[in-house]
Amino acid sequence: MSxxxxxxxxxxxxxxSLVQRADEDAGKLRLACPHGHWTHWDNPLPVLAAIxxxxxxxxxxxNAAWSEGxxxxxxxxxxxxxxxxxxxxRELKEETxxxxxxxxxxxxxxxxxxxxxxxxxxxxxxxxxxLSPELLEYRLVEPADLLPWRAGTGYALADWMHLRGLTVxxxxxxxxxxxxxxxxxxxxxxxxxxxxxxxxx
Length: 201
Hints:
The chain is of the alpha/beta class.
């Protein structure tokens, strides 16, 4: 699972405090060494994501840092000297102990909120799920019941569902519908409804 980066404060070459400098070509301010040793370009980070199919259902997992009822695809970063396909197979093994079989590229998606570029795959997996300490629980969801969100991996999931002729219901539309149904008078019932949903992020 991806994590938020720690902001840079010092030059990695001379340890001087970084300053804001204008990049006139790009029209942006960038953190840079005042002595010209280093510039933080802040390029988007490639992140791998997998729609993991196990026995015809899709595996969603909840990170230990997330609230109850919030589930996601398997994601992670590439290691040096590995292809994206090798990387997603490794992440799947590390986080779930499942073995990757057929790996098919779905697409590449922006996630500007976290300055990431998501490379999404459909992975047919086999084996028995054994979660890493990073993950608390998982669900196996029928493809037709998936509820993608309108960002990042949600668009990858929606594209995969479209390719299979499935109706895509984005989670935000369902939340709005439940709000109208309950008129926000019964907050307890609203919480239970939302918590029961498999949020695919």
